[in-house]
Specification:
heterodimer, A: alpha/beta, Rossmann fold, 6-stranded mixed β-sheet, 4-stranded antiparallel β-sheet, 19 helices, B: 608 residues, ABC transporter transmembrane region fold, 12 strands, 11% strand, ABC1_TM_dom (chain A), transmembrane (chain A)
């Protein structure tokens, strides 16, 4: 697995902009150097009474030009850097999102939505800040530093004196090496605490109704308070090192000054260097202080954002569980039968298999019903068919092709999957239904809604199909959500359709209408229906009863009823009410 | 009635951040308000604050002293060859350096600590306030938007408090000191110099306004990004099943692009504003030069004064330049503060009366008296709706989905207030009693199951926080959940939620039933509680529920008739109206809507 290097990649692409910006910084600083010179000449002229009013105007104009030049180049240089910083943020976020869409079940069961959000919001921003602000500050500070050192070297001060004075500053890299990792580690803790808080907030905004129902607002406040407290704790821990670090660098600058004063002073008194040299030396050392402080800040920021960068790189180098084969095929599933042979599957190696030796074949155009207890492996089977988790090699075939040899796009675009939870996106109803193809005309959307028995409900809404749904489609009731989600599956008109307990929240009458409509509409197409209730699957060509990952019974409704077994038991329980009622009132 | 119903103006919960809360425009929060609020939070840390300020003053003084020491060395020590004093000076600078380092460390730590405390309070206040808001608030607002307020906007304020405020203070201090000193040296020149200040102020005002509104756009676009992310990541499985990855990536890209554009707009403003201020600075310098030279030529001023003056002028530039940089942060914080205040200023519509009574343990006689209710203005759900739930009896509501059953349950728990009419429990209007005492006595098991990150035991214990482990286990047993819980390696200590064990829909439902059983409420509402269960579990739970319901008032909402046949009274609802009611047998004899539903579900021919 090759670790991703987002920053290196980015610099490789944008280095010309950085170069231009550096040049502009340089220009602006060079112009700035003239400023004291012009002022000096001006005061000299003034002192020598050589000033005329036209000269005054010239000088002030010259100063203004210097001002404009400095300001302009500096402004452009900064703008460029901040601009690429934003570009970086945009690119990384887009890359992250794309990466997320590639990740599979396992990834999402490990990482909560809130935690993932935190990467986008906190970490990307942290890195961006350090590369844009950091760069600007470093560029400026480095130039000032170089200028000061160059002038020092050019000014006939003995090199050994310079070296002695500057020596404390050479300790900076050692401090960075020593304190850097500490700062980074603590920043990581801060970022993780932030992620935790985001996660808690996300979870609790989603679950607010439960909180209200149980009147446990105080507990939730405490839970959230704890995460905020963690942030504070880690932030303060970080501040303690980072402010120590930031105080240390100017301190070293001051030590340099002490050396210059004492050693330089001694040399001056003993006449080994001139007073002029001594003055110049102290001046230059003081000139060093400001950029040093800035560099200290920058190093600090960089160490912090390195923690974020590591988090991001780590996230991006996680590989998707499900990868297409290199020579994956596209395939038309219209006439493809589905065959499952000897399928045994466990989520983790060594753990109990969820499915055991499943053998099943569905002819093209047939309807298969699957019934079984909660936890009997029905949904896992569907996920394997959709390849959102990887089945063992050769276990699942469409036609004669192993599902693992198909391209994901060709497989999933020809399967219509309707999950149980009726998840809707917060957008319009129309977009939710026409999710497989946003360009579908309204009458197609309406037709699908009619098949799913949701048309009347939608027609009653003020904006009908253009009604926007809230966070999770909360303005619709559970049954309405399921039916809208069903319409989304129906409109796809795919060769294979899978209903994963998709009508559980729908009343009996509507359920019957839906099943009738499906039977008509999908006469020549393959349909798999998973349900708890026999009424939803009894018309299927074949019904499979799953129990604890094993197919315990199979056959048509009529056949299964004649057998002793789970199916007949379920049927009896489901019909019990009916018999009970007939016993007391009708007959 | 103490709180008149304020109509919810929009049916579009996703209508954008501008339509926030009830849509009332929140008062624009001024920068002054922001600092005032920060100060009220910081006031509790007054000793720390004073400490930090003293540190800053001491730093400024020490920074002034160090160059003086250098000057003293040049002017006195070297010409007089005072070797012993040289060491003294060295020691002095060293001491100053140590003191400076210590003070810098102290001031940043102190400031950060104050900042963190202020933020800690602010974030908790914000969150607590959100928790106190109505369910309808959460219907209207997007989770991603709320999230970005709690996380992003508060963090922006943090940056300002922790780093910029001290800088602002230091600069203000330096600026005033230098300006006063300059006025003292030559007030005429200083006034000339200050002539550019009105322009600086004007520029700051003009740009400040734009910056703030740009930052506002930025923060709104951040909310958009976070909302889209939240939404798509929650629905990621669906996106994959529909191969909509490309489409969603594209849509995400659009939103981040908007965010980038908004940020670049801000950068442009900055890139224009800061140089303008710098330029005005240079202009001031030029003015001083021209005017000073003129005065010098007329011999009204010595050259030395001008030179000194120019030197001070350069000192003055730094605080101004810093200030223009900080303006950026301040404006950004103001925009963030505005967004935080929007939430803080949103009042809950459902509030307790001032002296709301505590509802005593009830029998559970619930009456809906001519209730009018609509979620939004233009679609009435209940109209002059009346319903009576007898104490200790089981009442069932049946009807197709969307007929208003869940709404009735929510009205009893007072998640929403009806526009007209009154709901009473044992004769107490639910508006006259405290929300806590009301909700404590109601247990709702619904079709939306939410479990929180934490252990199974913790999740069940939400029902009753003081309950013992034995009680938790008994509740799980009663909800027919003990079996699967004990099959996990960690049993009741198993982590669930986003990072824990994945539970099936039925397992989740049984946990939420256990939660309600543990709560042991007087009134129980089962809202399609068993819809997602398989037949056998449902059967077991029905038995558990039958025990639970004994002696309590119960409302059962279901479309599966098997679950409600034993109800004492059944109401059949269509589009918010009761079309039939009675016991199961009576309803069958009516041969109306109920028997029609019944026939469909249990066709006689089917039993072979």
């Amino acid at each position: 697995m090759k670790p991703k290097r987002i920053l290196a990649d980015f610099f490789r692409k944008t280095w010309p902009i950085y170069l231009i910006s550096t040049l502009f910084h340089l220009l602006s600083n060079l112009i700035n150097v003239f400023y004291p010179k012009v002022l000096g000449q001006f005061t000299d002229k003034l002192q020598m009474n050589g000033l005329t009013s036209s000269l005054i105007v010239d000088y002030s104009l010259l100063l203004l030009v210097i001002g404009i030049g400095h300001v302009l180049f500096n402004g452009i240089a900064m703008y460029l850097i901040m601009y690429v910083g934003r570009k970086f943020e945009f690119l990384v976020r887009r890359g992250l999102f794309k990466h997320f869409t590639e990740m599979g079940e396992r990834f999402y069961s490990k990482n909560g939505v809130g935690k993932l959000l935190s990467y986008f919001m906190n970490d990307v921003t942290a890195v961006r800040e350090s590369i844009s602000m950091g760069f600007n500050a470093t560029a400026n500070a480095t130039m000032l530093l170089i200028a000061a050192v160059t002038m020092m070297l050019l000014s006939h001060i003995p090199y050994y004196l310079i070296l002695a004075s500057v020596f404390p500053l050479l300790l900076i890299p050692i401090i960075v090496v020593y304190l850097g990792p500490v700062i980074r580690r603590r920043s990581l803790e801060v970022q993780e605490a932030l992620g935790k808080m985001t996660e808690t907030a996300e979870e609790q905004f989603g679950g607010i109704r439960v909180t209200k129902k149980f009147a446990v607002e105080t507990i939730m406040n405490e839970r959230f308070g704890k995460t905020v407290d963690q942030i504070r704790h880690h932030q303060l821990r970080l501040v303690r090192v980072s402010s120590f670090f930031q105080a240390l660098i100017p301190f070293l600058g001051a030590i340099a000054l002490v050396v210059a004063l004492a050693f330089g002073g001694y040399l001056t008194i003993t006449k080994q260097i001139t007073l002029g040299n001594f003055v110049a030396l102290t001046l230059y050392i003081r000139m060093l202080m400001n950029p040093l402080q800035q560099i200290g800040n920058v190093i600090n920021t960089i160490q912090r954002s390195r923690a974020s960068l590591e988090r991001l790189n780590g996230l991006l180098s996680q590989q998707a569980d499900i990868v297409e084969l290199e020579n994956a095929k596209e395939m038309d599933l219209a006439d493809a039968s589905i065959s499952i042979q000897g399928l045994t599957f466990a989520y983790e190696q060594g753990s109990n298999p969820v499915l055991k030796d499943i053998n099943l074949s569905v002819k093209a155009g047939a309807m298969l019903g699957i019934i079984g207890r909660t936890g009997s492996g029905k949904t896992t089977l569907m996920k394997l068919l959709l390849r959102t988790i990887d089945p063992p090699q050769g276990a699942i075939r469409y036609g004669n092709t192993d599902v693992r040899e198909l391209t994901l796009a060709s497989l999933r675009s020809q399967l219509a999957y309707v999950p149980q939870d009726g998840f809707l996106f917060s957008t319009t109803i129309r977009e939710n239904i026409a999710f497989s193809n946003r360009e579908l005309p309204l009458d197609t959307v309406e037709a699908a809604a009619k098949h799913a028995q949701i048309y009347d409900n939608i027609a009653e809404l003020p904006n009908q199909f253009e009604t926007r749904l809230g966070e999770r489609g909360l303005t619709l009731s559970g049954g309405q959500r399921q039916r809208t989600s069903l319409a989304r599956g129906i409109i796809k008109d795919a060769p294979i359709m899978i209903l994963d307990d998709s009508v559980s929240a729908v009343d009996a009458v509507t359920e019957k209408d839906i099943i009738d409509a499906l039977q008509k509409q999908r006469k020549d197409k393959t349909t798999i229906i998973i349900a708890h209730r026999i009424s939803a699957i009894k018309h299927a060509d074949e019904i499979v009863v799953l129990d604890d990952g094993v197919i315990v019974q199979r056959g048509t409704h009529a056949q299964l009823l004649t057998q002793q077994g789970l199916y007949a038991t379920l049927h009896a329980i489901q019909e019990e009410g009916s018999q009970h009622a007939t016993g007391t009132s009708h007959s | 009635m103490s709180d008149p119903y304020t109509p919810a103006p929009t049916f579009r919960p996703g209508g954008g951040a501008k339509r926030f809360g009830t849509g009332e425009k929140a008062k624009p929060a001024s920068i002054y308000n922001m600092f005032a609020r920060i100060y009220t939070h910081a006031r509790t840390q007054l000793p720390l604050l004073i400490g930090a300020v003293l540190c800053v003053i001491a730093i400024s003084l020490l920074e002034f002293i160090v160059p003086q020491l250098t000057r003293y060395t040049i002017d006195h020590i070297i010409p007089n060859r005072l070797f012993n004093k040289l060491l003294l000076i060295g020691g002095g600078v060293l001491g100053a350096a140590v003191a400076l380092g210590a003070l810098r460390y102290a001031s940043t730590s102190l400031m950060a600590s104050i900042g963190q405390r202020v933020l800690y309070n602010l974030r908790n206040d914000l969150y607590r306030h959100m928790q106190s808001l109505d369910v309808s608030f959460f219907d209207r607002n997007r989770t991603g938007d709320l999230m970005s307020r709690v996380t992003n906007d508060v963090s922006i304020l943090q940056q300002m408090i922790s780093s910029s405020m001290m800088q602002l203070f230091t600069d203000f201090f330096t600026f005033t000191a230098i300006a006063v000193y300059m006025l003292w040296i030559d007030w005429k020149l200083t006034l000339m110099l200050l002539a550019t200040f009105p322009f600086m102020l004007l520029t700051t005002k003009v740009f400040g306004k734009r910056m703030r509104s740009s930052f506002r756009t930025v923060q709104e676009s951040v909310a958009d990004v976070s909302d889209h992310l939240q939404n798509t990541l929650t629905g990621i499985r669906l996106i994959k099943a529909f191969t909509a990855e490309e489409y969603e990536s594209e849509r995400f890209s659009e939103r981040t692009q908007k965010n980038m554009d908004a940020n670049i707009q801000v950068t442009r403003l900055r890139a224009a504003y800061e140089p303008i201020i710098d330029f005005l600075n240079f202009l001031g310098l030029a003015i001083v030069l021209v005017f000073g030279a003129w005065l010098a030529m007329k011999d009204q001023m010595t050259v030395g004064t001008i030179v000194a003056f120019i030197a001070y002028l350069r000192l003055l530039q730094n605080p101004i330049r810093h200030f223009s940089r900080i303006m950026n942060t301040v404006q950004q914080s103001a925009a963030a503060y505005e967004r935080i205040m929007e939430v803080m200023n949103t009042k809950a519509e459902i509030v307790e009366k001032q002296h709301a009574a505590i509802l005593p343990p009830v029998n559970g006689h619930i009456v809906f008296d001519h209730i009018d209710f609509a979620y939004s203005n233009d679609s009435t759900l209940l109209e002059r709706f009346s319903l009576e739930l007898e104490a200790g009896k089981v009442t069932a509501l049946v009807g197709s989905s969307g007929s208003g059953k869940t709404t009735i349950a929510h009205l009893i728990a007072r998640f929403y207030d009806p526009q007209n009419g009154e709901i009473t429990i044992d004769g107490y209007s639910i508006k006259d009693i405290t929300l806590a005492s009301l909700r404590e006595q109601i247990g709702i098991v619904s079709q939306d199951i939410v479990l929180f990150n934490g252990t199974i035991a913790e999740n069940i214990r939400y029902g009753s926080l003081q309950s013992t482990d034995e009680e938790v286990m008994a509740a799980a047993e009663a909800a027919n959940a003990a079996g699967f819980i004990e099959s996990f390696p960690h049993g009741y200590g198993t982590q669930i939620g986003e990072r824990g064990v994945k539970l099936s829909g039925g397992q989740k439902q049984r946990l939420s039933i256990a939660r309600a059983i543990l709560k042991n409420p007087r009134i129980i509402i089962l809202d399609e509680a068993t819809a997602s269960l398989d037949t056998e579990s449902e059967q077991h739970i029905q038995d558990a529920l039958a025990m639970l319901l004994k002696g309590r008032t119960c409302m059962v909402i279901a479309h599966r008739l098997s679950t409600i046949q034993k109800a004492d009274r059944i109401y059949v609802l269509e589009k918010g109206k009761i079309v039939e009611f009675g016991a199961h047998d009576e309803l069958l004899r009516l041969e109306g809507r109920y028997s029609q539903l019944y026939e469909l579900q249990f066709p006689q021919t089917d039993v072979s």
